[in-house]
Design goal:
The structure holds four protein chains of four kinds. Chain B is mainly alpha-helical. Chain B has 25 helices and five strands. In chain B, the strands form two sheets. Chain B has a two-stranded antiparallel sheet with strand order 1-2. Chain B has a two-stranded antiparallel ribbon with strand order 4-5. In chain B, strand 4 (597-606) and strand 5 (613-623) form a beta hairpin. In chain B, helix 2 packs parallel to helix 4 (112-131). Chain B is globular, with a radius of gyration of 27 Å. Chain C has one domain (2-312). In chain C, helix 2 packs antiparallel against helix 9 (218-243), helix 3 (63-82) packs antiparallel against helix 4 and helix 4 packs antiparallel against helix 5. By secondary structure, chain D is mainly alpha-helical. In chain D, helix 3 (66-96) packs antiparallel against helix 4 (101-123), helix 9 packs antiparallel against helix 10 and helix 10 packs parallel to helix 12. The chains are: A mainly alpha, B mainly alpha, C mainly alpha, D mainly alpha. Chains A and B meet through helix 4, helix 5 and helix 8 of A and helix 25 of B.
Chain lengths: 234, 672, 315, 494
């Protein structure tokens, strides 16, 4: 069916989906630390909004709760925590140089097409108006991974990781009206702990290699190990 | 009844390994408890074997362990019985020999407990292999045998060379075991089930039958030490304590033979003559190369180990003939060849153990393993010298000893090749027989060298000069085996009668006319065709000897005067003037030069005029070509692959994430 | 009974006649080389002298050294037992076939080589080393010859083979021709004659057989020498009686046996002349040329076997 | 039922309790005690299952059947032995000053938390909770990997954390998709993640969604299993963390991840069986592919190791690969073998890691070429290591041989030519293991290497059990395996 046949709220859901996708692109393109944290916060907010909207449209009361949860976690707590960390680590003005940004954006676009192509057979059986959102959320997940691959900054990697989680939440919400409550709670708990642990690790990494450049975390490598031993032998 | 004896043997062996656990507290427990138990086990196994071979029955039972749907199945038929007997006799001899041998280990840091435990397990494994009636128990027993013998090889693990040998041995044993496992897998797949009875019933397509044969041939051949899979054998056998070497060379290789016969002739059943050709060729090559390498060894135990390869080759040659005959529908001739093979298996077990025990005796008395440092031992260890001589004569196939009898049978089988339809086979078999003849002659050269250099001449080192007399147990063990050599050689009919039951069971036909002429005459094919009377030969030799001695010996006056050796007027003699082991083998080394990899280094210092050679040193290393040919390439390939693979993990987390990213994409693309 | 008696007579002929063959060859050679020859009884005199003399043993000679001569001699006598000289189908023939004959020769070789190494002189070791190396080639060749015969006559039993050849009469078999040539070469090598070895010299570079028995004296030496002569006789008898079996007595009548003896003497005499001729015209070859020579023998024997398989029996 | 709750509550309370206990010694003993209690609870529960079959409880929140009951017992058991080992070992670590007392609290508390997550993952009936638990396992252990705070350990922990996080996120996406598929079949979505419910309706689930879901689930949990090429975190985490951690990681975590995958496969297979779908074997093929790849690659990695713990972690990858392959092959024989292999592998491997811990303690290093002559220095440790390696290398009469035997035969029946690959892989892996183990246990002792106070009882117990399983599988275990086989493949084996 066509978008014009949808009710206004449904159209809004689709619109939000598009915005979420856009924020992922923005995250990919964004090279300034603080800015990307803010974008991430917006993404979280959008996911929360979508949840609330779904709750309203298909009146699923428990979704309100998870919307609140998402809002609190993804849009407020985590950005705030990252913010604090970034300040503490003194990298708030850090600008990351991504190699061939245009190429990456091109790849990102290709990924969107790909995930649409993958999800195409699914939508046949989708009862909901929000069927293509599966493709969108899959794309968000993949874009998050792409971001993790392309960024050397530990913090931006974490942001990528979190945006993957956003994608998951979004998928769960818009395609299936949310998971059972207990699962939601469990996931939220995990995410929370993860966020804290990330904070811990930033400090640990910082202590061990005086930087957050993950490319310098390469002590443990098969090739390295062998070479070192060969040196020892010589 | 017999099966009780067989199980009792297993239990006794297990018990011996159990009591040995106390040996690290009380070393003497090995001598007073463990070895006697082994003797009991050996005796029981021998009794069981003879009982079953005597009345040709088939005994079956199951033990309440194993897989839930497949308990351990035990089956003792005449084939198992023969090998039970072999294991039993040698184990008995070793158990008698052992106490005297390990006594010296009791002082010092040697882990005696380890020795005792794994000796017991080793024998348990071998006994169970020949008694197993399902692939699962077979494999367990088989690997138990390999693993425990590996630990025994590692008994002297201080030297790096021994460690290398042990590693190689374990690796080869494991690979061989896997090949056998796969072979059984084929049979089990077709015969739904791991029990041998199911496998016997398995309807195999010729292709899969050949696959199974190939796998088992490789697996058992690897254990038996067929060229080119033999490289581990001369490394591993010599480094174990000598009585263990005797068990490994004398018995363990035979267990491999057993497995081969069991699978090809019993489980697969209908054989194809092509397999016979393979076995024939590989066997003759192994025999020839084995003896050639043996001839070049200066380490007595290495020499014996290589000669084991030779004899295994001979056995497989005979087995190959048997397969050819059976595969071309000549069961009578197949029976002759099979009996010859089994007879030689038995003989080799006996005299090779005898020789290894003798070598062990020397090693223990002189702490020398190198022929170049021995000499003149006959006057110092007369008993060992005498028994070792008998062993040498048997292995060199001299009438009327047992080695000759079996090789004679092999030749007789080969000479019946004329009955084959296929002209190529008719030409091939006499040719392999000629290879066998060459092997025999070289074996004689080899053991003349071994005996002459070790026992005759003058001692080449101080330790050897002061060799002391041996413990009675060790003497007795050697004497026992030597007696068996003579008896089996002089009364081959008895042995052949016992062995005859095996082809009867496997193929339904036996030797009709082997012993029709009575106990005195051995006529495998027909009296007119060929006959051999070992007893008369022995009597003849003795009588002529006596007559000659009686006539020539002067009465009364002192007929013998001792004096310095004449030596064409050179002299006085020094031990360094003798022919060494290396120089003795030189002509043959020169003739067959391409067979070995030879590194020779000659340094000469001449005086200032360059006329007189003041100092001359000659170093030479003879190494096995199979290394460069087969083993190193494989090792290199694995190293190369490992190096390539290790690039996969070069430490950058982003690359890792990329891996999982692209894996995901790939899979998604694949499924949609 | 007569059979056993005849066997003993034949054995006696073998043992006592062996020196004659040697001296006969020697005399022919002398005649060919215009030298004065020793009398026909010379070898007997030598043996008798040796038997009377006292034995001088090296200090470190072991028991094996003293036993060896008797064992070697006994082995040769047994070998002689199994080779038909004047008659076939003797009861003794069944004791051992051609393979066992080879075995007897091997016993002799085994002990003579060990004896050579016993005292521990360089010469002895050298002789033994060479002996075993050369025989390692001679033996397979001989066995190939035997295979050829055995496959022709369907038996490895000497007298059966000869019986068969007599029965079928003269058939021109390429296999037998090759076998004969191979056998001749092997016989020369095994009996230590020129060009393989030279019984007449004690040059350390060349000698094989003599080097091994250097340390022997008295009756031991006599035994060794006699055994060597016996060996020559055995090979002679093998060659002539296998390839020219005519005249052998097949039934035990006086006439037949008389014919058998006469035929044997003539055949051996001819062989002796051939041997003497060859030794006169040929020169002793270097030790390491001998393997090539023996390879030739092996090749001939192999050709014999193959030509039998290919040419003489249809597939 | 109560036994089940006890099994879960004990480690939970333990985690809380140990977080506050200050003295490491007390904590160590408490740790052991709680583990013993948990084990006995799980034993009671197992007996219950044995008596009256699988049960569903906690308004169908927990489900115990033949497949997970023995894994639960196994988990608690390995928990005990490792705790027994960790008590003296961690005091040694403490005395070396590698960790501070404060972190010991973290260690013990997290140890219990880890066990909790394992047990939760095994016993839950809800795919979502399963995911939560597996993720929780990562969170519980990640701080332990970096316990020593060396640069390497921090790096290892970071990789562990991020890679597993990403992986597990994909698994969540897969779970969402499963839920999505379920939502169209059964219309009360609250139960839409309950395994039992899903399994009942599995054949109606939409194949397309399920296939995509399975890809995400496989890649996700496969990261935890350590399937090549998703395995990269595993050697680092094993080699840099404290040895008891390596033992439980190798012995338990990998098993649980594999368990998760198999549970999902049990849902996917019926779904794909629907005639409209062209490739019903898809899940099996994917698992076979991953398994074989991991098996071969890990075997090659073994040849280039310098760190003993790293080496054995690769051996774990190899064996997990073999199990994945076996489950992928499917069929009663292969599945039975795989189930058996899960048991014997986790027992043997944890035993090996315990022995390795003592060995590294003796030699004072993890570098393979520094460890020498163990058998002479301390025969117990040397033999433990040697026999353990022999067992893991698949030598009879140890149980690993039996399971490999079954798997090989199964492969022989369905994929004859793959057996050659498997065999060459086994040989390569074998050579790789022993070429390194050999010089470590044998040979002369380097000076200054002295015996230490080592408690080898856990190793002995493990190896004895493995030996026992190799000689004779007890009937009740065989029956559990058989029922599990029935669940997974739909046909009995025995």
């Amino acid at each position: 069916m066509n978008i014009v046949d949808f009710s206004l709220q449904e159209q809004m859901v689709l619109l939000i989906a598009a915005l979420v996708l856009f924020t992922s692109f923005a995250l990919l393109a964004q090279q300034r630390m603080l800015a990307s944290i803010h974008v991430f916060a917006w993404q979280g907010a959008l996911v929360a909004g979508a949840t609330a909207l779904i709750a309203a449209v298909y009146d699923q009361p428990h979704l309100y709760f998870s919307a609140a949860l998402t809002m609190a976690l993804k849009a407020l707590f985590m950005p705030w925590m990252l913010h604090r960390l970034v300040n503490r680590l003194g990298i708030q003005h850090h600008v990351e140089t991504v190699v061939r940004p245009s190429l990456i954006l091109l790849a990102a676009a290709a990924l969107v097409v790909f995930s649409y192509y993958v999800a195409l057979p699914i939508e046949k059986l989708s009862l909901l108006s929000t069927r293509n959102t599966i493709a969108i959320s899959m794309a968000v997940v993949l874009l998050g991974m792409l971001m993790m691959v392309s960024r050397r900054q530990a913090v931006s990697q974490v942001i990528g990781f979190m945006s993957i989680e956003n994608g998951l939440f979004f998928a769960a919400v818009v395609s299936t009206h949310g998971m059972p409550m207990v699962v939601e709670l469990g996931i939220a708990f995990d995410v929370l702990v993860a966020a804290v642990l990330f904070g811990v690790f930033f400090l640990q990494i910082r202590d061990s290699i005086e930087s957050l450049d993950v490319d310098r975390l390469n002590r443990l490598s098969e090739t390295r190990l062998v070479e070192s031993v060969r040196e020892a032998e010589e | 009844m017999a099966i009780d004896f067989a199980l009792a043997a297993v239990l006794a062996a297990l018990g011996s390994s159990l009591v040995s656990t106390a040996a690290h507290k009380v070393p003497s427990v090995l001598r007073y408890l463990a070895f006697p138990l082994l003797a009991v086990s050996g005796a029981a196994a021998t009794v069981a074997g003879f009982m079953v071979m005597g009345n040709g029955e088939v005994l079956v039972t199951t033990l309440p362990v194993g897989l839930p749907w497949l308990e351990w199945q035990i089956r003792v038929d005449v084939l198992s019985a023969l090998f039970l007997t072999i294991i039993g006799i040698v184990t008995f001899a070793v158990a008698i020999f052992g106490p005297g041998y390990v006594r010296e280990y009791e002082h010092g840091q040697h882990p005696l407990a380890q020795l005792g435990i794994f000796t017991g397990l080793f024998i348990t494994g071998m006994l169970l292999v020949v008694m197993a009636n399902d692939a699962f128990l077979f494999m367990i027993a088989w690997e138990l045998m390999s693993l425990s013998s590996y630990f025994l090889v590692m008994f002297h693990h201080e030297q790096a060379a021994n460690r290398r040998a042990g590693f190689l041995y374990l690796l080869m044993a494991h690979v061989g075991g896997l090949a056998i496992l796969l072979g059984y897998g084929v049979l089990a797949t077709f015969g739904d089930g791991f029990s041998f009875d199911a496998m016997r019933a398995a309807p195999l397509t010729p292709l899969w039958a050949s696959v199974a044969f190939a796998l088992t041939f490789v697996g058992f051949g690897m254990k038996a030490g067929l060229v080119p899979l033999h490289a581990w054998l001369p490394e591993a056998h010599p480094v174990a304590p000598s009585h263990i070497s005797a068990l490994m060379s004398g018995v363990m290789l035979k267990v491999a033979i057993y497995g081969f016969i069991r699978v090809t002739l019993d489980l697969i059943g209908d054989v194809h003559w092509g397999w016979g050709v393979v076995a024939l060729l590989i066997g003759s090559i192994s025999a020839l190369l084995g003896v050639l390498y043996a001839l070049q060894q200066n380490d007595l135990k290495r020499l014996l180990a290589y000669s084991s390869i030779e004899n295994i080759g001979i056995i497989f040659l005979a087995l190959g003939m048997a397969l050819v005959f059976l595969g071309t529908g000549l069961p009578k001739l197949g029976a002759i060849a099979l009996v010859a093979a089994l007879f030689h298996t038995f003989n080799h077990a006996i005299f090779k153990s005898l020789l290894f025990l003798g070598a062990g005796n020397i090693v223990q008395r002189t702490h020398e393993q190198n022929l170049e440092r021995m000499g003149g031992l006959l006057t110092r260890l007369p008993y060992t010298g005498f028994f070792f001589l008998i062993g040498c004569m048997s292995i060199a196939a001299l009438p009327p000893f047992n080695g000759f009898a079996s090789e004679w049978l092999t030749f007789q089988a080969a000479l019946q090749a004329a009955e084959l339809k296929n002209g190529v086979l008719r030409a091939l078999i006499p040719f392999t027989a000629a290879m066998l003849a060459l092997t025999g002659a070289l074996a004689l050269a080899c053991f003349v060298k071994a005996y002459g250099v070790a026992f005759l001449g003058q001692p080449r080192s101080r330790r050897v000069r002061h060799a002391r007399k041996t413990a009675y147990g060790m003497r007795f063990a050697q004497g026992l085996l030597a007696t068996i050599c003579v008896l089996a050689g002089v009364f081959p009919n008895v042995v052949v009668n016992l062995l005859d039951t095996i082809p009867r069971m496997l193929t339904g036909t036996g030797l009709q006319s082997a012993t029709t002429q009575g106990w005195l005459w051995l006529t495998p094919v027909a009296p007119g065709v060929a006959s051999y009377s070992a007893p008369l030969v022995l009597v003849g030799i003795l009588v002529t000897w006596l007559i000659a001695w009686w006539f020539s010996h002067p009465r009364g006056a002192r007929s013998v005067r001792r004096g310095p050796a004449w030596d064409c007027g050179f002299g006085p003699l020094g031990p360094t003037m003798q022919y060494t082991s290396t120089s003795f083998a030189m002509p043959i080394r020169r003739i067959f030069a391409p067979v070995w990899g030879i590194e020779e280094k000659i340094e000469r210092q001449v005086d200032e005029y360059g006329l007189r050679v003041s100092r001359l040193s000659h170093q030479q290393r003879v190494y096995d070509r199979s290394w460069a040919a087969l083993y190193e390439p494989i090792a290199r390939w694995v190293q190369f692959a490992a190096r390539r693979v290790s690039r996969l993990q070069q430490g950058n987390i982003r690359v890792y994430i990329a891996y999982s990213f692209f894996t995901l994409l790939l899979l998604l693309w694949v499924i949609s | 009974m007569t059979g056993w008696l005849l066997a003993l007579v034949q054995l006696a002929l073998f043992v006592l006649g062996a020196p004659l063959l040697v001296i006969w060859v020697k005399r022919v050679k002398c005649f060919l080389q215009n030298r004065r020859a020793p009398s026909m009884l010379q070898p007997y005199r030598d043996l008798g002298k040796l038997f009377r003399k006292q034995v001088v043993l090296a200090e470190n000679a072991s028991q094996l050294f003293r036993m060896a001569p008797y064992i070697v001699f006994a082995a040769m006598v047994l070998a002689a037992f199994t080779v038909p000289l004047i008659a076939i189908q003797l009861p003794t023939a069944a004791i051992a076939d051609m393979l066992v004959l080879v075995g007897f020769l091997a016993i002799g070789r085994f002990f003579i080589t060990l004896a050579g190494m016993d005292v521990g002189t360089a010469f002895g070791g050298m002789g033994s080393s060479r002996e075993v190396s050369l025989s390692a080639f001679a033996e397979p060749a001989m066995l190939m010859v035997i295979f050829t015969l055995a496959m022709t006559a369907q038996s490895t039993n000497l007298s059966s083979v000869m019986q068969y050849l007599i029965d079928v009469g003269l058939v021109l078999r390429p296999s037998l021709m090759f076998a004969l040539l191979g056998m001749l070469l092997v016989a020369v090598a095994e009996t230590g004659r020129v060009p393989v070895d030279n019984p007449a010299t004690h040059l350390e570079l060349t000698m094989v057989h003599e080097a091994m028995i250097l340390e022997y004296s008295g009756r031991h030496l006599a035994m060794m020498e006699w055994a060597a002569q016996l060996k020559l006789m055995i090979f002679g008898a093998l060659v002539v009686n296998i390839f020219f079996p005519w005249g052998l007595a097949t039934e035990f009548t006086l006439v037949a046996i008389a014919i058998g003896i006469a035929a044997m003497i003539i055949k051996l005499a001819v062989l002796g002349v051939v041997l003497a001729l060859s030794e006169t015209v040929l020169a002793k070859m270097r030790v390491f040329r001998v393997p090539e020579y023996l390879n030739l023998a092996f090749l001939l024997a192999l050709l014999g076997a193959l030509s039998h398989i290919i040419l003489e029996v249809g597939v | 039922m109560n036994a089940l709750y006890l099994t879960l509550l004990l480690p939970l309370s333990g985690a809380v309790l140990l977080a506050v206990v200050r003295s490491p010694l007390v904590a160590g003993w408490l740790n052991v005690g709680i583990c013993v209690a948990t084990f006995s609870a799980s034993l009671v529960m197992a007996l219950g299952v044995l008596a009256n079959g699988p049960f569903l409880t906690g308004n169908s929140m927990f489900y115990i059947d033949a497949f997970n009951v023995y894994l639960v017992v196994l988990t608690t058991f390995v928990g005990i032995t490792t705790a027994v080992f960790s008590r003296p070992y961690m005091t040694y670590v403490l005395s070396e000053g590698w960790v501070k007392r404060k972190r010991m609290r973290l260690y013990h508390s997290m140890y219990q938390a880890f066990l909790l997550t394992m047990l939760l993952a095994l016993t839950t009936n809800n795919l979502g909770i399963l995911w939560v638990a597996v993720e929780g396992a990562t969170l519980a252990t990640v701080l332990l990997v970096s316990l020593y705070r060396t640069p390497e350990s921090v790096e290892a922990a970071w990789k562990y954390f991020v890679l597993c996080g990403v992986g597990i996120a994909q698994a969540l996406f897969g779970t969402v998709l499963v839920y999505f598929a379920a939502a169209h079949v059964l219309h009360l979505p609250e139960t839409g993640l309950q395994w039992t419910t899903l399994h009942a309706v599995a054949s109606q689930l939409d194949p397309t969604v399920m296939s995509i879901a399975f890809v995400f689930l496989l890649v996700g949990y496969g990261t935890k299993i350590g399937l090549v090429p998703l395995h990269n975190w595993l050697p680092d985490a094993h080699s840099e963390g404290p040895t008891p951690m390596s033992a439980v990681l190798s012995g338990l975590l990998l098993n649980v991840a594999l368990y998760a995958v198999v549970r999902c496969k049990m849902l996917v297979d019926p779904a794909l069986a629907d005639p409209a779908w062209d490739n019903p074997q898809l899940a099996g093929y994917l698992m076979m592919g991953f398994g074989l790849l991991s098996f071969m690659v890990a075997g090659l990695f073994l040849h280039r190791q310098q760190d003993i713990k790293r080496m054995f972690s690769y051996s774990s990858i190899e064996h997990m690969g073999l199990m994945t392959f076996a489950f992928g092959v499917g069929g009663p024989l292969a599945t039975f073998g795989a189930l058996l292999h899960m048991t014997v592998h986790s027992l043997t491997k944890s035993a090996i890691f315990i022995a390795v811990g003592h060995a590294t303690h003796i030699a004072g290093t993890q570098a393979i070429d520094k460890i020498r002559g163990l058998i002479k220095t301390q025969p117990a440790v040397g033999w433990g290591l040697l026999l353990g390696t022999a067992a893991i290398a698949g030598f009879p009469p140890f149980g690993v041989f039996m399971s490999e035997f079954l798997v090989l035969t199964a492969t022989m029946q369905s994929w004859p030519w793959l057996t050659l690959v498997l065999l060459s892989g086994l040989a390569i892996a074998f050579a790789g293991l022993f070429r390194n183990i050999h010089p470590m246990v044998y040979g002369a002792v380097p000076e200054g290497q002295v015996p230490v106070k080592a408690n080898m009882i856990p190793v002995a117990v493990h190896l004895l059990i493995v030996l026992w399983l190799g000689l004779a599988i007890p009937d009740f275990l065989a029956n559990w395996f058989d029922q599990a086989t029935l669940l997974i493949t739909g046909s009995h084996f025995l």
